[in-house]
Amino acid sequence: MSMAAGKSRRVEHSARLVEPDELSDPAFDELLNYWEARRRGRNIPARADIDPIHFPRLLPRVFMVRVDRAPLSFVYSLAGGENVEAHGRNFTGMDVRELDGWWPGYGSSLHEFYSLVVHGGVPLAASGTMSFVDREFRAFEALYLPLAAQDGDIGHIMGVALYGSVEAVA
Q1: Rounded to an integer, what distance in angstroms lies between the CA atom of residue 115 and that of residue 112?
Q2: CATH number for the domain including 137?
């Protein structure tokens, strides 16, 4: 699926897909460039090609989602400290749809969004507000990067998110 075709789809009720180059923080460009370099001529890099030693300052913002198949599901395998702080919960080990228990529709929307990443096989970005979480911040930007498993299928999605006030992220 092309990015243009997906632009009208909602990530959740107050978020939208954006082009990765529309994200405001240079850290997003750095991580995307790192991801691109690790592709080495392939469609996507392998999970084994990613070494956090190359982006240590981003680690508090990073999260990893394991992709399981039959049926398609997404389980958080890592949640950086800023993600935990932003949501008020550590999702490590949880299926994304379990988030519906705290915020109805949020986990289902994320499941649909992560499905777009898996089926498209390309980096996607999102921007929006998260007022439903009822925390100090009200806005976020995030980049989602597919990573291949040993069999070549997408086995993980690595994301990095920036949270802040609407004014700071807008």
Answers
A1: 5
A2: 3.30.450.20
Torsion over CA of 36, 120, 64 and 13, rounded to 10 degrees? 120
pLDDT tens sequence across 130-155: 766 665 656 899 999 999 999 999 99
- For 115-154, give one letter per residue: b (16+ CB within 10 A) or e: ebbbebebbbbbbbbbeebeeebbbbbbbbbbbbeeeeeb
Write out the residue range of the structural domain in which residue 43 sits. Answer: 3-169
- Provide the Cα torsion 116, 164, 106, 128; round to 10°: -50
pTM value?
A: 0.86
- CB 117, CB 72: distance < 8 Å: no
* Total count of domains within the chain: 1
pLDDT tens for each residue of 109-125:
899 999 999 999 999 99
Q: List Cα–Cα distances, 76 to 1, 83, 106, 134, in angstroms.
A: 24, 11, 15, 22
Using a 10 angstrom Cβ sphere, with 0-12 exposed, 13-18 middle and 19 or more buried, the burial of residue 84 is middle
Instruction: Find the farthest-apart pair of alpha carbons in the chain and give their distance in angstroms, rounded.
Output: 43
